[in-house]
Amino acid sequence: MENVPSVFDLTLMFLLLMIVYAPPLSSSPGRPARIHPPASTQRRSAESCRSGSSYERERFCPGPTRTFPRRPDAAHRGYLLLNEIEERRQFLAEMAALGQEKQYVDIINTEISQRTWRTELDAVETPEKGAAERKRRTSCCSI
């Protein structure tokens, strides 16, 4: 019984026959893939390249990068500060009506003093900041 091939041998022979006699793979079954040369050349002539603006550099014109919000003037800032203080006073009055004024009195007074202190600092520093801002704006290059 030594002449009878084993199952492994039969499987191996079958796979080798499949590889050797298998048809080539194509993009669509039944049709071979065709490669067509282009009907006309896609190249441009040297003169058509030179005649266009392909070799001209675009001029750089820097534009504004971002806009800065305008700072309110002193009168408007004072008006805003008075409104904030009034809102806090009304809040304290509402809390007093509810019997919870003691919780908020220190917090509200601290906020009011911080706002007024910042406003006073801004009033002192504004002329210096304004001059620095004008200098920064005018130092931009021009064409």
TrEMBL record:
<dbReference type="Pfam" id="PF05250">
    <property type="entry name" value="UPF0193"/>
</dbReference>
<protein>
    <recommendedName>
        <fullName>Biopolymer transporter ExbD</fullName>
    </recommendedName>
</protein>
<feature type="region of interest" description="Disordered">
    <location>
        <begin position="28"/>
        <end position="69"/>
    </location>
</feature>
<keyword id="KW-0732">Signal</keyword>
<feature type="compositionally biased region" description="Polar residues">
    <location>
        <begin position="39"/>
        <end position="54"/>
    </location>
</feature>
<feature type="signal peptide">
    <location>
        <begin position="1"/>
        <end position="27"/>
    </location>
</feature>
<dbReference type="InterPro" id="IPR007914">
    <property type="entry name" value="UPF0193"/>
</dbReference>
